[in-house]
Design goal:
By secondary structure, the chain is of the alpha+beta class. The protein contains four helices and 22 strands. The strands form four sheets. It has a six-stranded antiparallel beta barrel with strand order 3-12-15-14-13-16. It has a four-stranded antiparallel β-sheet with strand order 4-11-9-6, with no helix packed on it. Strands 8-7-5-10 form a four-stranded antiparallel β-sheet.
Length: about 375
């Protein structure tokens, strides 16, 4: 029989452990299994240690044991802390107009989709009676002005009485006031646009009756838009007017850089959020009620250490990252415990545990052990 001394060290240790286990074998199978598991763990640890020692002494013998990895040298970069939410594009000037006076529509000048200017007449309500009243007053006013001018000249020459002059003046001014009133009433029969924009809806036709308060036109200024959204109340003290915002439109694959122009202070009791608005620059592709994604940047670190978030592993409640370090002639994996202070855009900002120049293992980090030999 061969002596145990002729076996490799790891095999001899294994046989001795098994013989020992057999000689003191517990009667309960569960206890036997527990004992064997403990012995297996101890043996695995010893075998791993011996393999590492052999690899250091003879790297060529352990070449097949090296794990292939990719590494990236850690460098500083700018890092944005932001909150992302979904919002809607809103027209600041989105006006529904109604007639100022009741009546029958005699003319409609605007059509849907037409660009119009501020003050442009969109429709006309029947004003025939008012126009006739204006014409009659203008004729009376001409005569009254003539009488007034003559009485004024006579009174200047001390001819006639003062009461005659004052009556002529009063008649003239009274007619002028009545004319101004009728002209104002006539203006109220014209439906005018209060803004420059595009006619979005026309809800009247010639011959229909209109009344004050009933919308007949909608006009939108598509060059003056804002993005409106709601943000969780947890950011109420971090977001301020002037913060940078990236507004993106995933369906169009476009984005716009803007700034926060309004931050609400009232928390919605149902959604636990507050309103936020962003004034948008003019862009031809923007339309009211479009859906947008708002990325509100509330803090920027100009110099930060960042690693891909997937290389950060949770082990026993600790955040760890594996780096490649030179150990003599070998490249080995080193486990680094890190502190993460933010995760954005698939990057994790590292506060401590790493330094500039560290070679971060970005491929092959799964299942690595501290001190394991690497092949780069």
């Amino acid at each position: 029989m061969k002596s145990l001394l002729t076996f490799p060290n790891s095999t001899a240790v294994l046989l001795i452990a098994l013989l020992t286990a057999c000689s003191s074998k517990p009667e309960n199978k569960a206890d036997q299994l527990e004992v064997l598991k403990k012995q297996q763990a101890e043996l695995s640890k010893k075998i791993d240690g011996l393999e590492k020692e052999i690899a250091k002494e003879n790297p060529q013998a352990a070449k097949v044991k090296m794990k292939e990895v990719d590494v990236t040298a850690l460098a500083t970069r700018s890092f944005d802390h932001y909150v992302q939410t979904q919002g809607t594009i809103v027209a600041i000037d989105n006006i529904q107009m109604s007639a100022k006076s009741a009546g029958v529509v005699t003319q409609v000048f605007a059509r849907e989709g037409e660009n119009i200017s501020k003050g442009q007449i969109l429709a006309q309500v029947d004003n025939s009676l008012i126009v006739r009243g204006i014409d009659e007053l203008k004729a009376n006013l001409d005569l009254t002005n003539t009488v007034y001018e003559r009485q004024k000249n006579l009174w200047a020459q001390k001819i006639g009485t003062e009461i005659q002059y004052l009556q002529a003046k009063n008649n003239k001014e009274s007619l002028e006031r009545r004319l101004a009133t009728l002209q104002e009433q006539n203006e109220m029969t014209k439906i005018k646009s209060p803004i420059t924009g595009t006619v979005e809806a026309v809800n009247i036709k010639v011959g229909e009756n209109v009344a004050p308060g009933v919308p007949v036109f909608r006009v939108i200024n598509t060059t003056d838009l804002k993005a409106s959204a709601k943000v969780s109340e947890s950011f109420i003290t971090t977001i301020e007017n002037g913060d940078k915002v990236n507004v993106s439109f995933p369906d169009l694959e476009k984005s716009i850089d803007a700034k926060v122009t309004f931050v609400g202070r009232n928390i919605d009791a149902l959604t636990r959020s507050f309103p936020l608005e962003v004034k948008l620059p003019s862009a031809s592709f923007l339309r009211p009620n479009m859906t947008a994604v708002l990325r509100i940047i509330f803090h920027t670190e100009p110099v930060a250490l960042c690693v891909p978030v997937n290389v950060v592993q949770d082990v026993n409640g600790q955040k760890i990252v594996y780096v490649a370090e030179t150990d003599g002639q070998n490249l080995v994996a080193r486990r680094k415990v890190v502190e993460v202070v933010g995760v954005y855009d698939n990057l994790a900002q590292i506060k401590s545990g790493l330094k500039v120049g560290d070679k971060i293992i970005t491929v092959g980090y799964q299942g690595l052990n501290d001190g394991e030999l690497l092949k780069n």
